[in-house]
Amino acid sequence: MSGVVVRRGQTVREPWTSGSASVQHYLHALHRAGVDVPEPLGQDEAGRQVLEFIHGALAIDSAPLTGSELRRVGALVRQIHDASTPAISRLRLRSGRR
Predict the structure, then answer these.
(1) Where are the domains of the chain?
(2) Rounded to an integer, what distance in angstroms lies between the CA atom of residue 17 and that of residue 73?
(3) What is the pLDDT along the chain (98 residues), one digit of tens a residue?
(4) b/e map 58-97, b = 16+ CB within 10 Å
(5) Cβ–Cβ contacts within 10 Å for residue 13, how many?
(6) Residue pair 11/52 in contact by the 8 Å Cβ criterion
(7) Rounded distance between C-alpha atoms, residue 98 and residue 92, angstroms
(8) What's the Cα-to-Cα distance from 61 to each of 45, 58, 65, 86, rounded to whole Å?
């Protein structure tokens, strides 16, 4: 089944694409930097990308965010940005791009 995303236990599995290796490297870098992102777990026996399942509600199904929740989201975006700069530089070097 192409294009199907499934949950299996405490993991999420989705088709492996041409960008999946970069996604795995990027998530590893964010995870190592302490950003609260799903842990990348490689490929399964069917060749699908495997990520840690994170429990929680979808924001679209929730009430508008409070001021403190917005500050928390802003801090997370800042943390992702700060951790992304060196991670993206390493991915570009690995791929031969600058």
Answers:
(1) 6-95
(2) 29
(3) 457 999 999 999 999 999 999 899 899 999 999 998 999 999 999 999 999 999 988 888 889 999 999 999 999 999 999 999 887 777 676 666 66
(4) eeeeeeeeeeeeeeeeeeeeebeeebbeebeeebeeeeee
(5) 21
(6) yes
(7) 6
(8) 34, 5, 11, 34
